[in-house]
């Protein structure tokens, strides 16, 4: 097992301080779409999963998921070396909850998009224009779902 550079107490404080709202990827998406004239609500509590962006006019929501916390199969995710069982269970629960929330939103008549952190950050990210155009095209379409992720490894 690899030794951590900080104590368990400090690591716990660091992990607990990571917020779920107003992340850098989320702010990028919000800025891109707002500049293009799209208006939205943030984190509506009355919808399953409190989607990051809610477009009532288009009956659409966008989740901006961090690749680590949601266990995305990409270059930005790797299972922690310590407390592996704890992290595996936590990430599996997050994935299951994401799926239930997505299915519930669809059953309620909402269209659901997921923009992964790797689409906006990291060495395999898409261009900002590609992400913005992908989201805009989806919002204006009648497609039920969208998933934007980073490029495949070269």
Written description of the protein model:
There is one protein chain. The chain is of the alpha/beta class. Helix content is 40%, strand content 14%. The protein has a five-stranded mixed β-sheet with strand order 1-2-3-4-5, with helices on both faces. A hairpin with a 4-residue loop joins β2 (53-55) and β3 (60-65). It is globular and about 50 Å long. The chain starts with 7 loop residues before the first helix and ends in a 6-residue tail after the last strand.
How many β-strand runs? Answer: 5
Q: Which descriptor suits the 3D outline? A: globular
Number of helical regions? 5
Distance between the termini: 30 Å
Instruction: Please report which band the strand proportion falls in: under 5%, 5-15%, 15-25%, 25-35%, 35-45% or over 45%.
Output: 5-15%
The portion of residues assigned to helices is 40-55%
The biggest sheet amounts to:
5 strands, mixed
């Amino acid at each position: 097992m690899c030794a951590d550079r900080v104590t368990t107490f400090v690591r716990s404080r660091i992990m607990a301080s990571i917020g779920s709202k107003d992340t850098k990827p989320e702010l990028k998406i919000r800025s891109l779409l707002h500049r293009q004239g799209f208006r939205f609500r943030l984190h509506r509590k009355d919808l399953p999963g409190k989607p990051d962006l809610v477009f009532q006019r288009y009956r659409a929501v966008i989740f901006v998921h961090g690749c680590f916390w949601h266990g995305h199969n990409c270059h930005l995710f790797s299972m922690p070396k310590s407390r592996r069982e704890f992290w595996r269970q936590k990430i599996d629960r997050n994935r299951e909850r994401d799926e239930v929330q997505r299915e519930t939103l669809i059953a309620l008549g909402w269209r659901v998009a997921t923009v992964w952190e790797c689409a906006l950050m990291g060495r395999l990210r898409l261009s900002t224009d590609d992400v913005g155009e992908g989201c805009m095209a989806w919002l204006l379409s009648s497609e039920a779902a969208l998933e934007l992720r980073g490029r495949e490894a070269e």
